Amino acid sequence: MRYLMTTKAGPNDAAPDEKLFAEMGAFIDELSAAGVLLATGGLEPGGVRLVSAGGEVTVTDGPFAEAKEAVVGFALVEVGSKEEAVELARRFRTIVGDGESVIQQVFGP
């Protein structure tokens, strides 16, 4: 099963230190070597929002007022169960500290 794990901006916007980079690097290497990690990355803070209503599409450039709710990073993993995805996300949160992540199963080929 594939799961998309997203993370939102944390309560503090402090730049990551060398220890965090090292721990995340080791975690990513471990998941990559195990064949679990399919893709990962950070996301630009602004983005573009598209809203459709009544056959009309409105395009708005970011950043948006709800920046604290913005998704700032993602990982796409392939694991055997939802519980495994939760455990990986728990390990990620332990490394990066306070904040919020969301796990969603990805359907389709």
Automatic annotation (TrEMBL):
This is Transcriptional regulator. It comes from Embleya hyalina. Residues 1-93 form the YCII-related domain. InterPro entries: Dimeric_a/b-barrel (IPR011008), YCII (IPR005545). It comes from the Bacteria. Belongs to the YciI family. Gene3D superfamilies: Dimeric alpha+beta barrel. Pfam families: YCII (PF03795).
